Amino acid sequence: MNDDEWQVWVSERPEAVRAAARRWPGCSGGKLVCYRSTENPRFHYTIYSYAETPTGVTCSLVHGRDSTLPGITTFGQPLEQLIRCDCGKWDPPTVEQKRATHKRLERLKQGRN
Ligand SMILES: [Zn+2]
Hints:
The chain has helices at about 5-10, 15-25, 95-110; strands spanning about 25-30, 30, 35, 45-55, 55-65, 75-80, 80-85. By secondary structure, the chain is of the alpha+beta class.
């Protein structure tokens, strides 16, 4: 999404989401903005979506190639935990990583580790 498209998209969101998306943009300069988390600053994330909740705006984060859960999107994440990284090196998970994550989740669902 280029900057013009991003600005239009943001302008069409509810007020609280607009404010959050301006402070923690999902993309900038036509590129995804990468973030790190105060919880675990080793890994990269990108923002996939925003959600307005009774207690504030949260986001869903896509875990990148360097995450312990590559390919997973986690919901309800507090934006305040995000540290804008901007190195531009968020990479999507590899096919192998996605398969391994899927298998891991299947094992967890079945009560095995
Ligand atoms: Zn980065």
